[in-house]
Amino acid sequence: MEKIYSTAKICAFDNNSTCDLALEPELTQTLANSRNPEELKHVWVEWRNAVGPHCRLLFEEYVDLSNEAARLNNFTNTAESWLDGYEDPQFRQQIESLWEQLKPLYLQIHAYVRFQLRKKYGDVVSEKGPIPAHLLGNMWAQRWRNVAQFNLPYPDKEEVDLTAELRAQNYTVDKIFRTAEDFFKSINLTEMPQTFWERSILEKPKDREMVCHASAWDFYDRKDFRIKQCTAITMEHFTTAHHEMGHVEYFIQYKNQPVKFRRGANSGFHEAVGDLISLSVESRKHLRKIGLLKSESDDPENVLNNLFQIGLDKIVFLPFGYLMDLWRWDVFEGKITPDEYNCKWWELREKYQGVEPPVNRTDQDFDPAAKYHIIASVPYIRYFVSFVIQFQFHRAVCEKAGQYDANDPSKPLHECDIYQNTEAGNALKKMLQLGSSRPWPDAIEVLTGQRTMDASALLEYFKPLHKWLEQENKKNKVFIGWEKSTKGCVNTKDKAKPE
Ligand SMILES: [Zn+2]
């Protein structure tokens, strides 16, 4: 399945003789930059045609084999084995309750974006239905930042278009990673070893096929750590570079633990380290410091535009981050059978994300396979966990840096930047060095003083945006939530049943 995914190619929208377009970089770029709904639909559908049907039977086999392996390890099924690392029988309920707390914020940004997209695309977007998934700037509609340009709260105010700025300033791949490293070093974390620079693959090789999905690697010899990323000079890759380097930094911090404990406190922790750094990097304060933001002004409208763009990454990801494994847990538990794979997938996409496919789907399609982590068997709830706890971590380090105070409106959480603050870095380091030697509630307590996951820091960070979205949606009488999609997923077997 990984081979199918990493070598899949499709034809261009307007040129049937160009048929060598890959997910990275071509399709990703088209999804991000094209504003032609027909072209977007083409790429969306063709990518799924190129991967899904070829993986459907293999995936069925994978589910059986994976469950068999889980049973040999004394688990009931793979779902149970994946959840084992969270060491909490109530974990699924915890996640559901976090989502319930975050949902009101998601509904506001969803309604606002649908309203704006309708202005842009007309009837392709319905007034009260789910948002068509191909119009959101990303192949899986998991981050919507690429459509920020025509959704900005204050369109006349400057937009922090970091992609344009990175290119204007001649950023190279090397400079992107050196910039990320500089941040880690500035808070007293450890620099990347020389071998990291020699052995990592930071650009897409021209002479061979490669799984381009970015990843970080610990070779478990306490010296050799690497990143593999087909880096492009974009904002998204700039953030991803910080994300992947966060993994490496965690590897380095716990390298002196016994092998057994050289892991994240739980896998959500591992995903949160680099993102935590990005939260500081994306503050206006920091962007100005490293010369990516020219404007000196921090009036509330500029601040809100910036916060909105971050929300298009961090808020809109939440339901996607949740439903990926909601689907797979049910698949592994046999609650979703192979003939229901695709239609149940769309049920969840609609229920949680409020998105719909651009064209009708059937059980012969297999759209989950169009996402890397599904075919590569990488559990996904870790990203949901990460998106919640990274804000908890952020709140804790910002308090330590004296840059956030719940009772001081001049120090809001979204303006904090811990760059060069060694006190914040040392606090983080203490948690990272534990690896998985302690249960994760002990680890999170070391940094935050809390022993549970808590959505309040994320809500606090986005409070000004949440308030603005509520007012704006009310003013424009925007429908909140969504009615049932008119794009169906048809089970062909049902259809073929005799009357
Ligand atoms: Zn990661």
From TrEMBL:
Zn(2+) 1 binds at residues 243, 247, 271. The keyword Endoplasmic reticulum does not apply. Glycans are attached at residue 16. GO terms for cellular component: extracellular space; plasma membrane. GO terms for biological process: proteolysis. Gene3D superfamilies: 1.10.1370.30. It comes from the Eukaryota. Zn(2+) 2 binds at residues 243, 247, 271. PANTHER family: ANGIOTENSIN-CONVERTING ENZYME, ANGIOTENSIN-CONVERTING ENZYME-RELATED. Belongs to the peptidase M2 family. This is Angiotensin-converting enzyme. It comes from Tenebrio molitor.
